[in-house]
TrEMBL record:
It comes from Diaphorina citri (Asian citrus psyllid). This is Androgen-induced gene 1 protein-like. The chain crosses the membrane at residues 32-52, 64-81, 101-122. It comes from the Eukaryota. Its main location: membrane.
Length: 154
């Protein structure tokens, strides 16, 4: 999710900065703030991926996708609620990308479902490459073996 937010923010920022905020606000918001909010989370996620205990394994991909789907459905509901009840898009760039009814439906679906799902799939592939998934049975076996080794040393 953080990789998606980072990529989306910086893509929109560099292609059409005015959709993020007007240039005059840049005097009030320092550049490091954007990096803190939209780049640092990606670094934290990668550090977590690399430094987390090797014995831990992620949730099954189906569970991760289910949780993400529930989150995104709620988020899309709030986004469309603001648009149609208040007449304002939650994010200005959505109004830019969603000029017609077809684009109004397809842009948020693409931005909130398809692209994040691709990122989840990539994250699981990276995780599988960096460390093999450890099953509960393997953890128990490893624990018993290391306990026996400790007992023999004593």
């Amino acid at each position: 999710m953080s990789l998606y937010v980072c990529n989306t923010f910086w893509y929109v920022y560099y292609t059409n900065r005015e959709l993020i905020y007007p240039k005059m606000i840049e005097k009030l918001v320092p550049a490091w703030y954007n990096h803190t909010m939209h780049t640092l989370p990606v670094l934290i996620v990668f550090l977590h991926l690399i430094l987390v205990e090797p014995e831990s394994s992620p949730l099954p991909m189906k569970t991760s996708l289910f949780i993400q789907t529930v989150f995104h459905v709620g988020y899309m509901f709030l986004t469309f609620h603001d648009r149609y009840m208040k007449g304002v898009w939650l994010y200005k760039f959505l109004g830019y990308y969603a000029e017609t009814w077809t684009r109004t439906l397809l842009a948020p679906i693409l931005l909130t479902f398809v692209i994040p799902y691709i990122y989840v799939w990539i994250a699981y592939r990276i995780n599988d490459e960096l460390r093999p998934t450890v099953t509960k049975a393997k953890r128990k076996t490893t624990g018993k073996v290391s306990a026996k080794i400790k007992n023999k040393k004593q």
